[in-house]
Write a structure and sequence with these properties.
This protein is mostly helical. It has one domain. About 75% of the residues lie in helices and about 0% in strands. The chain is built from 15 helices and no strands. Helix 2 crosses helix 11 and helix 6 packs antiparallel against helix 12. The longest helix is centred in the N-terminal third of the chain and has 36 residues.
């Protein structure tokens, strides 16, 4: 396969990964509503940490079962990359969750996408070269689109604990994306380090589950309904096993800057899914989760992010002597 065809296939794979992650937002929201029916007195930290532990632990075990022969020859660098990805991944999730308790959800959604700015800045510092005009314009369009989608009120914006923690989360996600581009790990097998990453995230969540659990039995009662188990299965199979293994397999064929901008499609897809999926989930699991409405903000914000990614993949603003 030619480099151009490989690049195009990688872009399609990463867009698909982004769609799977977008699916996790309504699925997690429906799961939280279902769990509050089962354990009304438990805290949100318990549900979140337990969900992350079960989700990534089950996904890691599934990969382990399908990847046993290759894991027998796992290398030190595959272990190293998997553990580093687990550290950055769980750090980003936990800082993002705690930050949500101290800031608006819309502000968190906007600041979490900060990696589309952090990545080109890091690349510019490492290479000692300013980002190209195309990257600069694409980044501005994405930031403007996410700000519209999140409905951020900049007049009331302040940099408090929640905002700082969300920025730290975005930096952690930046580290995760950059790790997949690091030449040190170019020869690593995605199945091996993905398995280590998923199991590592689950193990890192274990202390938080222990600290926040009302009782040991609550860890089972939180999933003591067909709806809760079904939603967890969706998160494990589609939003974790498929999404993360494809990300780890294909991101190496695009630049980290390009990947960060592609991943910003996630809030657009999540907003579209929220127009109809909550109603389906409510009917299936007997919860009260209303569909969102199509708004001008969704159209404009999604349009800006889409234009940014079309610009990124086009040859417009490229130097005339640059080879494809």
């Amino acid at each position: 396969m030619s480099a151009e065809n490989l690049h195009g296939q990688a872009i399609r794979a990463l867009v698909f990964c982004t769609a799977m992650w977008a699916l996790s937002f309504p699925a997690m929201k429906a799961l939280a509503l279902e769990q509050h029916k089962l354990l009304p007195d438990a805290g949100s930290w318990f549900f979140t940490s337990l969900g992350v532990m079960y989700r990534f632990g089950a996904a890691g075990l599934l990969l382990l079962l399908f990847n046993v022969p290759a894991l027998k020859t796992i290398s030190r660098r595959e272990m190293e990359q998997g553990l580093a990805l687990a550290f950055f991944g769980v750090g980003g999730i936990l800082f993002q969750m705690d930050g949500l308790a101290y800031t608006l959800a819309s502000t968190s959604a906007f600041l979490t996408q900060g990696y589309c700015l952090f990545i080109p800045l890091w690349v510019a510092l490492v290479n000692r070269r300013c980002p190209s005009l195309k990257i600069f314009l694409s980044t501005l369009l994405v930031l403007a689109g996410v700000a519209l989608l999140a409905n951020v009120n900049f007049h009331s914006f302040k940099l408090g604990r929640g905002e700082l923690e969300t920025l730290i989360a975005s930096l952690m996600f930046t580290g995760q994306i950059l790790l997949l581009e690091n030449p040190r790990y170019a020869a690593n097998r995605p199945g091996n380090f993905s398995t280590v990453m998923l199991l590592g995230i689950a193990l890192l969540c274990l202390p938080l589950v222990w600290a926040t659990a009302p009782s040991a039995a609550a860890c089972l009662r939180a999933y003591a309904s067909p709806a809760a188990c079904g939603l967890l299965a969706v998160l494990v199979v589609f939003c974790t096993v498929i999404a993360y293994t494809m990300m780890n397999r294909w991101q190496r064929h695009v630049s980290a800057t390009e990947a960060g901008l592609i991943y910003c499609i996630e809030p657009v897809i999540a907003s579209v899914l929220a127009l109809f999926l909550p109603g389906w989930l409510s009917h299936w699991s007997d919860i009260n989760y209303a569909n969102e409405q199509l708004t001008l903000r969704l159209l404009l914000g999604g349009g800006l992010i889409t234009v940014a990614n079309v610009l990124l993949q086009s040859r417009w603003l490229e130097p005339c002597n640059q080879q494809p």
